[in-house]
Design goal:
Distance between the termini: 26 Å
Low-confidence stretches: none
Shape: elongated
Number of strands: 6
Number of helices: 3
CATH topology: Glutaredoxin
Structural class: alpha+beta
Mean pLDDT: 96
Length: about 140
Amino acid sequence: MPNITIYHNPDCGTSRNTLGLIRNAGIEPTIVEYLKTPPSREVLVDLIERAGLTVRQALREKGTPFLELGLDDATLTDTQLLDAIQVHPILLNRPFVATPLGVRLCRPSEMVLDILPEPQQAAFTKEDGEVVINERGERLR
């Protein structure tokens, strides 16, 4: 079984859909509920770098204290942004998924398909009704 980790928020539909796609490939990942167990600073930096993102690109604005903390200030450094994420893990966008094939911020959820080492085994429909995998396990978009 490949070692796959999802940094998951069970209250997030995109995160739930991503987890569903992982399981639809026959894989049971390690699930880290990052709001309860935030990744260490070192893990966070590694995830962001391996995903090819900047720290700012990994920030979530909606439903977070982003504006209240003044994080829209473009002069803030990566260190300052990482400090804010460590104190307020809700600021980390989700879900991040790490597999042997890479790391992605899976927004939209089907981005996880690019890094899964196993094919989809069945049809998959996202919570909003969008079909992303057909009955033959083939990606539709």
